[in-house]
Amino acid sequence: MTDLSTNLLDLVIANRILAHEDVVDAFGHVSFRHPDNPDRYWLSCSRAPELVVAEDLMEYNLDGEPINQGDRTMYAERPIHGGVYQARPDVQAVIHNHSMTVIPYGVTNTPLRPIFHLAAVIGEQVPVWDIRDTFGDTNMLVTTMDQGRDLAKALADGRVALMRGHGCLVVGSSIKTAVMASIYLQVNAKLLSESLGMGEVTYLSPGEVELMGQTQVRPLSGDRAWEYWARRAGC
Ligand code: MN
Questions:
Q1: Using an 8 Å Cβ cutoff, are 59 and 66 in contact?
Q2: pTM > 0.90
């Protein structure tokens, strides 16, 4: 199979995995950058991730204009994807979700940092982006390229950014890495909320985040986790 057809298959599986692990519900989406054309990305038409099939996948330019729309409807928040792909040549996959356990860390001054080894993949610092800072009162959705680029600026060179009162943005060098980071971001948020209620929390050190983060995205661990999540999701 070509890289493109492999990625298209993985994109369907990624949708199913994120739904099965409760990272997404009716909302949320995942995309990948075209492996042969860095100015394009692939994303499902507007549909709940659990239901996405190969026929739903659409190609876009980085401004979010469709290449092969047909009669399909589109996600309103695709500027999240294009904004990141324009700003970060290293990013090959983008996920946007509203994971419930993560939301509290976007609306309080309690930082979301890794406290267990498998969450190293989210990075040591997780910035919070507030759409209101630049755009005032909105419907909270990232629907313009100016908003998408502003969010990408807050992400900077990291892997995760929280979106105040809305959700989060997770990026990766592959679909598999972005899916892994999304799942462990959610798990870490739940564990951290529990730990904060029990007493003073010890976080991973910057060195631990660096070393474990490298270990965990190797194919040995990345493929093992992917196979497990895909099977659980019925793929
Ligand atoms: Mn959203």
A1: yes
A2: yes
